[in-house]
Structures are given as C-alpha cells and as structure tokens.
Amino acid sequence: MKIIKSVKQMSLISKKLRGSRKTIGFILTMGYLHEGHISLIRKARKENNIVVVSIYVNPAQFGPKEDFKKYPRNIKMDTTLCEKCGVDIIFAPSDKDMYPQGYVTYINVEKLSEGLCGTKRPGHFKGVTTVVSKLFNIVKPSAAYFGQKDAQQALIINKMAQDLNMGIKIKIMPTVREPGGLAMSSRNAYLSVDEKKDALVLYKALQKAKSMIESREYRAKNIVGEMRRLIKTKKSIRIDYIEIVSANDLKPVDKIKRKVLIALAVFTGKTRLIDNMIVRV
Amino acid sequence: MKIIKSVKQMSLISKKLRGSRKTIGFILTMGYLHEGHISLIRKARKENNIVVVSIYVNPAQFGPKEDFKKYPRNIKMDTTLCEKCGVDIIFAPSDKDMYPQGYVTYINVEKLSEGLCGTKRPGHFKGVTTVVSKLFNIVKPSAAYFGQKDAQQALIINKMAQDLNMGIKIKIMPTVREPGGLAMSSRNAYLSVDEKKDALVLYKALQKAKSMIESREYRAKNIVGEMRRLIKTKKSIRIDYIEIVSANDLKPVDKIKRKVLIALAVFTGKTRLIDNMIVRV
Questions:
Q1: One domain, residues B146 and B197
Q2: What digits encode the pLDDT tens for the residues A214-228?
Q3: What is d(CA A32, CA B164) in angstroms, rounded to the nearest whole number?
Q4: Which residue ranges in chain A fall short of pLDDT 50?
Q5: Regarding beta strands B50-55 and B24-29, do their DSSP bridges make them parallel or antiparallel, or are they unpaired?
Q6: Can you name the residues that pair with B262 across neighbouring β-strands?
Q7: Which residues does chain A have within 8 Å of residue B104's beta carbon, measured at their own beta carbons?
Q8: CATH code at position A226
Q9: Are residues A96 and A163 in the same domain?
C-alpha cells in the first residue's frame, strides 16, 4: 500500500493507471475510519482493479463555528485499517496543496443543497461538492462509494456527477450501525457513555416512523410529531431538525407517498449527529 | 470528419481515444467560425493526435435580455471550415442533452468573475465555466485552446482548470484582427458597414493607450480618459466600460506597472463588442 501526499504525484499515478485501463474504486473520507467506511472499501475492493482511499479533513465544508479543528484524526489507525482491507493507495493531501493561496473556484448544486442540513449548515455542501470534484479530478475513479448515512450529500454528489457529465459511477451503500442501532460516524468519538446511550433514541424514532407508515399513517406531521416526542424523552438531546421529504428531490411532503426520506439532525452536547431512513409506500 | 450530436456518444469516443493514449486538442466555440477560431484549430492540429471542435450556443451564459436567440448560426459553413482545417470531430450537442430537465449544478470562479464583463453581464461567467467544465468532462481533452480576445474568460477558465485540478493544459492564443484592426468576433456579423467602420476606433484607442504607456504615461486615469475621448468621436458607439487592471488578478490599477490588461466593452447599436490589449512595463 502506498501513501501519497502530493496532489501532483497522485494525479500522475491515476493518469497512468487509467491509461493502462485499470478501474479505480474511490472512497473519499475525512479519516478516523469506522465500519461504515470499511463497508465501502470492501465493496470497492470487489469491484475494481485499484482501490484508493482519500483521507482529508476538508476545511471548506466546515462553518466558522464548527468542529474543523477538533475533528478526530488518527492517520496511523487509518493506515492499519486500510492495509488490512487491501487498499492500494491512501491519498492524504495537505490543505496547502488542496487550497493554495488565491483559491476561488466553487461548485454548487442548487436546490438539493438548500434544505435539511443545507439550511442548518450554510455553505457546507458547496464545500463538499467542491472538494469531491477536485478529488475526482485528481484520482480519476471509475466508481466512487458513499454512505447512505449522509443521504443529502449522496444525492447531491450523484446529481453533480450527472449534471457535469463526470462519467463516474456513484454508488451509495447502506448505513452501518452499532449493535444498538446508532449510525456509525467519526463524530461518535465525541460522545460520552451516557450521550451514546441516549443517542440510541434516534434509530428508535426512525424505526417508529417506519412502523407508523407501515400501519398506514401517511400524515408527515403526525409521524414527525411522534418522533419529536420520542427524542424529547432524552434530556441530553436537542433536535436540530426532523423532516420527511421526497427521496428524489428532497422537497418536503405532507402525505407520505412513493419513496420518502425521513431525515433528522440533533445535537447532544456540542456534537451534531444525523441519521435517516428511506421508506417506500 | 465526424459530427457527433449525442453527449453519450461523444463521451464514449473520447474515453476510447484517451484509453488508447491519443492526445485530444479541443476548441470550444459557439459556431459561426472566423479566423480567430481557425487560428486555434491550426494550433491544436499541430499539437495533438485528435482535434475536436465543439459548436454549442450555450444558453446558460446569456442574460435574459441578451442575444441568445439571434446569435448567428451556420453549421454548414462551420462544417466546411472544420473539414478544411483537418478537424477530426465536431461535437454539436442539443440543449436538451446539455441541460436536461432538473439541471442544477453550476461552477463559479469567484473574484475573477466579478469585475469587467462580470459586472455588466451578471451570471455570464458562471454559465461559461459550467458549460466549459461539462464539455471538458465529455471531450476529455489534453489541451484546450482559447482566444485572448475574451481575456477575462481565458483567465477564469485557466483558474478553474487549476483550482479544480482538471489536468488540462489551457492555451491562450493571440487575438486575430481584420485588416483595419477590428478584433474577429462572430458578433461582427451584426454590424452594418458604417458601424464596422466606426468600430475600428476600438483598436485605435488600445494602440493609443499602449503608445501613451510607452511614452511613460503611467496614470491609468489619464490613459482611460484619452481612450474615452477617442471613442466618443464615433457617434454610433456607446461605451460600456474601459478599464485598466492587473493582468493576473484583474484588480483595477491606478499606476501602470508590470503587466496590465487594458479592457473595453462598447455597444454599437444593440451589438456589444469587446477588445483588449496586454501591456508590459
């Protein structure tokens, strides 16, 4: 396994690989890898000649008051995990190489970036699409793998790849959960034992929503109301949003029909957690 | 020579070409080709295995009151010219294929897009960078050729390619002028005989500016003043802007130093013409 830190070097390697007709499977991460990432790596390993994992905590997608500085990092642990999973190349560029002085180019996926987390974290998705597009150009993947846990991000990146004719397959893999149901996230490392226990209510609320829909409760308001009630039983948790939207265009729905995304974000202490579930009627 | 209209087909062809290690030289045009375009094609022909010319009048770069509908088109004449110049592929996609329903992704090169024509044509450069990025992804060029006549556009595209790590050489070729000095432009087709005669003053004003600087007049205000005076002698011409900016970052300068761009835009009737000159001190 190689660890590449230079953008130039990575570009040359991927150009050579694609020139010799190798397929490249790409997993874009901010490091501090967990089972969610591993599931993406395993899938990519099965489907491609070469697997590249990028590890880069992207400053452009953090708001000024967010956790960029304290975001958990452990390149040693990440390296060991990648090695074990048969990764060929870790690409871990520096901020200076990714955003040199005078950097000014940004990509925006309008509409899809505006609701849900986009409302709560202005500029976040612009930072995500910009770095993803840069990393795509540097690594030149045939396919890139993302987790359903970041549902809005996955939809936005897929739309960007289509709209800009990137010719890269975007593959969205299921959320991996801890035994109690908590969605895997590098940010779970912030949680105390008690906070982690309380956070189990998020998955319970999503499951409750699903079972309500299965019992033919189709009024979004009632479902969100019940989810709110459940989550509010945990004192350590403050709700950021709970919304039910169309799974294709993220527009809010009143009546559940076809395929909806039930999405939520909460704070427990200073830690922001998100989770979601797709339900088909 | 092939004429390709489908985005999908063009993507497949260029993927195959790059896979077999052919270099692709790319000239992006809105058609109605003139000697300026031809000079780019000739250069690309010398430097690449394959030459692709795109002909696409991009709706996203026209303002609502601009000349999208009446922009001159003549695919037959363009085809003959391309054939003569040894072009391998004309790529002429449809609006529906380029901007399918629900299209929402845009690229913006901040700062550089804000001054000069960017102030006068809001959204114009966002439309340009977006379509250029799409065309780059579809055609996968090794090098792309642009004219210095659109100085701000050239700078913006070069910056985008660098910032987003596109790995494409951006080559800027000198402005080609008609015998009297008028910069070649498809929009010259709009001009009456008299308007065309009056428009010669633009190049004269630029030459005047250059000779003033050569005579050590370094005060931008005085130079712009003299250009204004000269152009105003032509009643058919209305000045949109005349500016002297740093050639690297397009920031206005008071004192001429190093490398400046002297840029102007005027209206003659409803026709907007631009021209510019780079002067080194």
A1: no
A2: 999 999 999 999 999
A3: 25
A4: none
A5: parallel
A6: B244, B277
A7: 109-112, 159, 163
A8: 3.30.1300.10
A9: yes
Judge if A112 and A192 occupy the same domain. no
List the structure tokens of B278.
């780079």
**Whole-angstrom distance, CA of residue B129 vs CA of residue B111:** 14
Residue to substitute from B152, B164, B170, interface A, most A β-carbons within 10 A: B164
Q: Does residue A33 sit within a domain?
A: yes
Catalytic: which of A4, A32, A37, A145? A37
The pLDDT, as a whole number, for residue A176 is: 98
Q: Is residue A180 part of a domain?
A: no
Boundaries of domain holding B192: 186-274
Residue after which a domain boundary falls, among B140, B173, B206: B173
The two counts, helices (H) then strands (E), for chain A are 9, 10
Per residue in B200-259, pLDDT (tens digit) is: 999 999 999 999 999 999 999 999 999 999 999 999 999 999 999 999 999 999 999 999
CA distances for B226 relative to A14, A136, B229, B235, angstroms = 53, 49, 5, 16
The residue among A8, A13, A20, A105 with the most chain B CBs within 10 A of its CB, best to mutate, is A105
Q: Which residues numbered 234-273 in B keep a CB inside 8 Å of some CB on A?
A: 249
pLDDT for residue B26: 98
| ipTM for the whole complex | 0.96
Distances (CA, A) of B128 to A106, B59, B259, B269: 14, 10, 25, 25
Contacts of A16 in chain B (CB under 8 A): none
> What's residue A45's pLDDT?
98
B166:A138 CB<8 A: no
Residue that terminates a domain, selected from B173, B196, B223: B173
Q: Do A236 and A166 share a structural domain?
A: no
- B137–A7 C-beta distance less than 8 A: no
- In the prediction, which pLDDT does B72 show? 97
- Asked if A106 lies within 8 A of B111 by C-beta distance, the reply is no
B100 to chain A: closest CA residue: A163
| Distance of alpha carbon B48 from the chain centroid | 21
Q: Does residue B281 fall inside a structural domain?
A: no
Closest chain B residue to A110, measured at CA: B104
- Together in a domain, A28 and A121: yes
Amino acid at B94: S
- C-alpha separations of B162 from A14, A97, A103, B123, B157 in Å: 17, 11, 9, 21, 9
Which residue of chain B is at minimal alpha-carbon distance from A142? Answer: B15
Report pLDDT digits (tens) over B26-63.
999 999 999 999 999 999 999 999 999 999 999 999 99
Is B13 within the bounds of a domain? Answer: yes
CATH code of the domain containing A80:
3.40.50.620
Contact A262, A209 (CB under 8 A): yes
Number of domains in chain A: 2
Instruction: Find, in chain B, the residue whose alpha carbon is nearest to that of A164.
Output: B134
> So what's the pLDDT on residue B33?
98
Range 99-158 of A in CB contact (< 8 A) with B: 102-112, 129-130, 133-134, 137-138
The verdict on B107 and B161 lying in the same domain is yes
What is the structure's pLDDT at B139?
98
* Banded model confidence at residue B175, pLDDT cuts 50, 70, 90: very high
Residues B115 and B241 in one domain: no
Instruction: Give pLDDT tens digits for A142-157.
Output: 999 999 999 999 999 9
**Is A139 in the same domain as A45?**
yes
